[in-house]
Amino acid sequence: MDIAGKVAVVTGAGSGIGAALTRSFTGNGAKVMAADIDLGRVAEIASETGAYPIGVDVSREEDNVRLIEETEAQLGPIDLFCANAGVAYEGSEQSADEEWERMWRVNFLSHVYASRHLIPRWQARGSGYFLVTASAAGLLTNIGAAQYSVTKHAAVALAEWLAVTYGDDGIKVSCLCPQGVLTPILEKEGETAEFLRATAITPEAVAESVIEGLREERFLILPHPEVAQYEQRRAEDRDGWLEAMRRLRRNLRAR
Ligand SMILES: NC(=O)c1ccc[n+]([C@@H]2O[C@H](COP(=O)([O-])OP(=O)(O)OC[C@H]3O[C@@H](n4cnc5c(N)ncnc54)[C@H](O)[C@@H]3O)[C@@H](O)[C@H]2O)c1
Question: I need a surface site. Which of 80, 97, 163, 192 has the fewest CB within 10 A?
């Protein structure tokens, strides 16, 4: 897909990767509906880029419906939907159910809701493109962040399932899986954030990678190419990979 002239939705557009995608898409001639739970922030990005701002909470099904309907009413049929909004915090199996549910709703169920209401429209039109922002944590794992790892694995699994099920209807799916990106998510305290900052890239570099991945209509978009090697190592020798991850965890805790 060449983004020029397309109608795109970007969720989580008020900050970080979503703001960079909005700048890049509008700069490349797309009409963009920029959605975020923080309407003030997304309104600023919109006035800077010429995108259209909208306040939505992607964890609510009715907000996804409103986002899709308002975009199509104002800008025309949606060509590309970037399900990018997400939250990250540390946690474990000891975390309260509410902590699991909150992340499950934002990082995973939001993708179910958006695709539930987009797929029938796209099937009727014979085309449509769904881009899920998962994470390298969705292919590997994230030390110290159980909910994040689990919900991002679920996001990758849903994206794969949609690609298999609706590819013959002309529907494309890509899954963006960066490692560290220099956004407020990585500004948090903690050994994992500090470790990821060492190889972190800018949101603008992620947006460039997305433009290229969309052009090639590639399923996996990996702004950090080394993630492909880590995933291969995990597939070839799961026990060796787990031991390497335990070693990394020990090293991080010893700092
Ligand atoms: N920064 C990283 O290191 C990194 C790495 C891999 C994947 N990701 C993923 O990239 C995506 C974007 O993250 P980012 O780094 O740009 O973070 P960010 O915090 O800069 O931006 C996230 C945006 O999502 C919005 N948002 C949060 N909950 C929402 C909701 N319920 N409804 C609508 N909007 C909501 C926030 O207001 C914020 O503007 C996330 O899915 C994140 O998990 C980030």
Answer: 97
Mutate to test the pocket of ligand 1, among 36, 111, 206 (most ligand atoms within 8 A of CB): 36
Closest Cα to residue 88, out of 76, 99, 73, 77? 99
pLDDT tens for 100-142 read: 999 999 999 999 999 999 999 999 999 999 999 999 999 999 9
Cα torsion 198, 203, 209, 211 to 10°: value is 180
Domain ranges of the chain: 7-225
d(CA 86, CA 19): 13
Alpha helices in 126-202 (DSSP H): 146-166, 191-197
Task: Write the residue with the smallest CA distance to atom 40 of ligand 1.
Answer: 86
**What average pLDDT does this structure show over 184-198?**
84
Q: Is the Cβ atom of 71 under 6 angstroms away from ligand 1?
A: no
Atom of ligand 1 nearest to the CA of 20: 16
Q: Is the CB of 109 under 6 A from ligand 1?
A: no
Catalytic residue flag (residue 148): yes
Residue 191 has pLDDT above 80, yes or no: no
Q: Tell whether pTM > 0.70.
A: yes
Which residue in the list 52, 89, 129, 148 is annotated as catalytic?
A: 148
Is the CATH number 3.50.50.60 carried by domain 7-225? no
